[in-house]
Fold this sequence. Notes:
The chain has a single domain, classed as 2-Layer Sandwich (Alpha-Beta Plaits), CATH 3.30.70.60. With 97 residues, the chain is α+β, with helices and mostly antiparallel strands. The chain is globular and about 35 Å long. The chain is 31% helix and 47% strand. A hairpin with a 2-residue loop joins β2 (36-52) and β3. A four-stranded antiparallel beta sheet has the order 2-3-1-4, covered by helices on one side.
Amino acid sequence: MRRYELMLILRPDVADSRAKEIFERTTRSVTEQGGTILKDVAWGRRRMAYEINHKAEGIYAVLNVTATKESVAELDRQLNLNEAVMRTKVMRPAGAK
């Protein structure tokens, strides 16, 4: 298992209940595939540095997880298929093993 940091940016017109559902489904997906959630922080609505798809705001969440590289790749693929998700960023933290 490796440590990863996953950032999600959802469209600003997504309802709060729908955003919460997407975040919960994401954490459930990690745990169902044998990973663990180390930290789950919902930043909420933030103004972005630049527009994405003509949107100046987004709903942010950051997850620190331990998981296999295959499960993280599948999770990223599933999130990119979701129309409510504008961007995902998966990275390994510096110095992580």
